[in-house]
Write a structure and sequence with these properties.
heterodimer; A: about 375 residues; 15 helices; globular; B: mainly alpha; 13 helices; about 70% helix; transmembrane (chain B); transmembrane transporter activity (chain B)
C-alpha cells in the first residue's frame, strides 16, 4: 500500500482521474436506475433535454448553477487552507436573515442600489456564522468540522424560531417572511432575455461568475492567498514563516461563510423574493460535492456547479417523465460523487499509475525510464 | 404528590425510549473513534439500518430478521467507510459525509420505488415489531405506591433493544478497560505505530472496530423503525447520529459518561415534547427550538473548553501508513 506516489502527468491528475471518478459515480447511479427497471441511457437523455432543451429548463439550470457556484466556492476556499467547512448550509440560512432584514428595510429602493446593501448584509451574517467555528478552531482548538455541523443545527433551530415567531406577518399562513418589494427585488434575467420565461435565474448569476474570478485571484494572486495555501499544506511551515495561523483561519472561515451567504442574495432577495422556512434545502451540502469534483479550483467548481445544475433541473424533468426516479436519485449521485472524488480518490489512482508504469516500461518512451527509476528511489 | 410522581415517571420513560438509539449510536461511535476513525456517518448508518430493518420486517413479518437486515445495511456502510479510510487512506470526514447523503438518497429513492408511499414503508404490526417485555409481577406491583410505577413503569415494559442498549454500556466499559482487545483498540487510536511495531495488524484491528460500530448502530437504526415507531419514514434519524456524536465528545469517549450524556440529551428531547405549548413559572414559554438546539450548544461550549475539555484520541482521523 505504501509504494511511493508516482508523479503522473498533470493532465492525468487534473482531468483524467476526476473524470474517471465521476464516471464511476454515474455508472453506479446507472446501475441503481437499471435496478428499478428504467433505462439509464434514456434517463440521461431526458435529463439533458430537461436542462438544456428549452428556455424554461435552461433558466432553472442556470439558477441552480448560481447557488452551487457559491456553495462550492465556500467549501473550496476553506479547503485550500486545510479547513473543511461543512457549515455552508447553516451559513447560507443565517445569511438569509441579513438579506431579508435589509431588503425589507430599504423596501422601495431601486434594486441596483439595494443589491450592494443586501450583499453586504448577507456576507456579514454568513461570515459571522462561519467566523464562530473559525474562532473556536483558531483560539480554542475545537475542530471546525464538528463545530460547523453543530452550527448547522443551531442555525436551523434559530432560524425556524425567528421565521415562525418574529418575521412571519400575521396575514400569511405558512412560515415565511414578508415579501420583498418588487422594485427592490433582484430582477430575473428573463426581464431582458424573454427566452428564459420568468425562471428564477437572476442578476446573481453574474455575481457567481465574478465570485469564481475573485476567488481565483484571491487564492493564487494575492499574498493572503499564498499564506492561506501555505497553511493548508503545512501549518508549521506557515507559522515558521511568520504567518499567524489563528488570524488566517478566522479570515478564511469568514470569507468562506460570506461566499455561502451569497446564496441568500440569489434565493431570498431574488428567486423567492422572501425568506422561506428551510430555504437552503441542501444547497450548502451540494457545495461539498461541487468543490471536491472541481478539485477546489474555480474553473473546476464552475464546471461541476453546472453539472449539478443540470442534475437538479434535469432531475426534476426526469421525476416528471419517469415517476419511478425521484429527486432523491440526484442526492444519491451527489453522495457517490463526494465518495469517489473526495474520499476514495486513491482507489482509481493506483490502477492508473500502474497503467502508466506499464506503458512506459514497454518502451513507448525510453527517455522516461531512468526518470521513473529515480522517482521510485525516493 | 402522586400526580407529580406519575408525571415525572412518564417523563423518564420517554427519556429512556428516546435515549435508546442515541446510546447505541454513541457506543458505536466510541468503538470507531477509539480506534482512530472519525465517524461522521453515524447518521447515515442509523437511517440505512432503520430502512433495511423496516423493509425486511415488513416482507418477512419478523422483527428479528428485520434486525439482521438492518445490521447488515449498517455493516455494509461501515465496510465502505473502512475501504475509504483504511485501505485508500482517504479523508474520513468526507467519506462519512458522503455516506450520510448516500443513505438519505437511497432510502427515500428505494422506498418510494418499492412501496410507492413517498419514501415511507408500510406500517408494521404484530411480530414485525419488537414488543414490550414485561418483567415478572410488573402487573401485580403496579398498584404499589412508589415501587409500583418505578418497577412496572420505568424498568419494565421496554423492548428487548432498549435492554440491549443499556447492557452494552457496562459491556463496552469492560471490553475497553479489561480486555486485551480493548487495550489494543485504545492503542490503535492513540498510537498505531506502537501496535504495528508489536507485530499486530493496524488494518485488521480498525476493521474489527468498524464491524462493532456497524453492528451497534445497526441495532439503533432497527430500534427506530421497528420498536419506537412502526414503520420507516423519510429521514427518520433526524439528526440523532449527530446528537450521538455530540454526546460522544461530551462524554470524552468514555462509555458510562456516554450513556449519561445520551440520557441528558434524551431528557432534553422528552422535555421538549412535554413542555410544548406550556408556560413555565418565571421563564415563560420556552420555544421548542431552544430545546432542540441545546445539545449542540452544549457540545460546542464543551469542545471550546468552556465546560471542561474534550481531548480526542491522538490518532483520530489519521490514516495509518505502514513504512517499508
Amino acid at each position: 500500500m505504501s509504494a511511493p506516489r508516482i508523479a503522473l502527468p498533470r493532465w492525468v491528475d487534473v482531468v483524467l482521474l476526476p473524470v474517471l471518478n465521476v464516471s464511476l459515480a454515474f455508472l453506479i447511479g446507472g446501475i441503481v436506475v437499471l435496478a428499478v427497471g428504467e433505462n439509464p441511457i434514456e434517463a440521461v437523455r431526458i435529463m439533458f433535454y430537461g436542462a438544456f432543451g428549452y428556455g424554461y429548463g435552461f433558466g432553472f439550470t442556470l439558477y441552480y448553477t448560481t447557488n452551487f457556484v457559491f456553495a462550492g466556492l465556500a467549501v473550496a476556499l476553506a479547503y485550500h487552507a486545510g479547513l473543511f467547512n461543512i457549515g455552508g448550509e447553516g451559513q447560507a440560512y443565517v445569511a438569509g436573515l441579513g438579506a431579508i432584514l435589509v431588503a425589507l428595510a430599504v423596501a422601495g429602493l431601486h434594486w441596483a442600489l439595494a443589491l450592494p446593501l443586501i450583499m453586504i448584509a448577507s456576507a456579514l451574517f454568513g461570515g459571522i456564522w462561519a467566523l464562530i467555528p473559525g474562532y473556536l478552531q483558531a483560539k480554542r482548538g475545537s475542530h471546525v468540522v464538528i463545530t460547523t455541523i453543530m452550527m448547522n443545527f443551531i442555525a436551523t433551530s434559530l432560524m425556524s424560531y425567528l421565521i415562525s415567531r418574529v418575521l412571519k406577518p400575521p396575514h400569511i399562513a405558512s412560515d415565511e417572511s414578508e415579501r420583498v418589494d418588487a422594485m427592490t427585488r433582484v430582477p430575473f434575467l428573463s426581464e431582458w432575455i424573454p427566452m428564459l420565461r420568468n425562471t428564477p435565474v437572476n442578476i446573481s448569476f453574474f455575481l457567481a461568475i465574478a465570485a469564481l474570478v475573485g476567488v481565483y485571484i484571491l487564492i493564487w494572486r494575492t499574498k493572503f492567498g499564498y499564506a492561506l495555501r501555505t497553511m493548508g499544506h503545512s501549518g508549521t511551515a506557515a507559522r515558521y514563516a511568520g504567518m499567524s495561523n489563528a488570524k488566517l483561519i478566522m479570515i478564511t472561515m469568514a470569507i468562506s461563510g460570506a461566499l455561502a451567504g451569497m446564496i441568500a442574495v440569489n434565493d431570498v432577495a431574488g428567486a423567492h423574493g422572501r425568506l422561506l422556512l428551510n430555504y437552503v434545502a441542501g444547497t450548502g451540502f451540494v457545495g461539498i460535492a461541487v468543490a471536491f469534483m472541481g478539485k477546489a479550483h474555480p474553473i473546476g467548481v464552475g464546471l461541476s456547479a453546472l453539472l449539478f445544475g443540470v442534475l437538479y433541473q434535469g432531475g426534476q424533468e426526469l421525476a416528471f417523465t419517469m415517476p419511478a426516479i425521484t429527486r432523491e436519485m440526484i442526492l444519491t449521485i451527489q453522495a457517490l460523487v463526494i465518495l469517489f472524488t473526495g474520499a476514495m480518490s486513491e482507489m482509481l489512482r493506483r490502477p492508473v499509475e500502474l497503467a502508466f508504469i506499464f506503458s512506459r516500461l514497454r518502451g513507448h518512451d525510453p527517455d522516461t525510464q531512468p526518470k521513473l527509476a529515480a522517482q521510485e528511489d525516493k | 404528590m402522586d400526580a407529580i410522581l406519575s408525571d415525572l415517571i412518564s417523563l423518564l420513560i420517554t427519556t429512556i425510549r428516546v435515549s435508546t438509539p442515541l446510546i447505541l449510536a454513541c457506543l458505536a461511535g466510541l468503538y470507531s473513534e477509539r480506534a482512530g476513525i472519525i465517524d461522521i456517518g453515524l447518521e447515515g448508518k442509523l437511517l440505512g439500518a432503520a430502512f433495511g430493518a423496516a423493509t425486511v420486517a415488513y416482507l418477512t413479518g419478523s422483527a428479528w430478521i428485520g434486525l439482521i437486515a438492518g445490521v447488515g445495511v449498517s455493516l455494509a456502510f461501515s465496510g465502505i467507510h473502512g475501504l475509504a479510510s483504511i485501505n485508500f487512506r482517504g479523508n474520513q470526514v468526507i467519506s462519512g459525509v458522503a455516506l450520510n447523503f448516500l443513505a438519505a438518497g437511497l432510502t427515500t429513492f428505494l422506498g418510494a420505488t418499492w412501496f410507492a408511499r413517498g419514501g415511507n414503508t408500510p406500517a408494521l404490526s404484530g411480530d414485525a415489531r419488537f414488543g414490550a417485555i414485561h418483567f415478572p409481577f410488573a402487573r401485580e406491583l403496579s398498584g404499589v405506591p412508589v415501587i409500583g410505577p418505578l418497577y412496572s413503569g420505568l424498568l419494565s415494559g421496554h423492548t428487548i433493544l432498549t435492554y440491549i442498549a443499556f447492557l452494552a454500556v457496562p459491556l463496552t466499559a469492560w471490553v475497553l478497560w479489561r480486555t486485551r482487545f480493548g487495550l489494543r483498540l485504545r492503542s490503535v487510536g492513540e498510537n498505531p505505530k506502537a501496535l504495528d511495531t508489536a507485530g499486530m495488524s493496524v488494518m485488521w484491528l480498525r476493521y474489527k472496530a468498524l464491524m462493532i460500530t456497524g453492528t451497534l448502530v445497526g441495532v439503533g437504526g432497527a430500534y427506530l423503525s421497528t420498536a419506537q415507531a412502526a414503520s420507516f419514514s423519510n429521514n427518520m434519524a433526524a439528526g440523532r447520529g449527530f446528537i450521538a456524536l455530540a454526546a460522544l465528545i461530551f462524554a470524552k469517549w468514555r462509555p458510562f459518561q456516554a450513556m449519561f450524556a445520551c440520557l441528558l440529551f434524551g431528557l432534553l428531547e422528552a422535555l421538549q415534547y412535554r413542555l410544548q405549548g406550556q408556560d413555565l413559572p418565571f421563564i415563560g414559554r420556552v420555544p421548542t427550538q431552544a430545546m432542540q438546539a441545546l445539545p449542540y450548544v452544549l457540545t460546542i461550549l464543551l469542545l471550546a473548553g468552556f465546560v471542561g475539555r474534550a481531548i480526542p484520541p491522538k490518532g483520530l482521523g489519521q490514516p495509518y501508513v505502514k513504512e517499508r
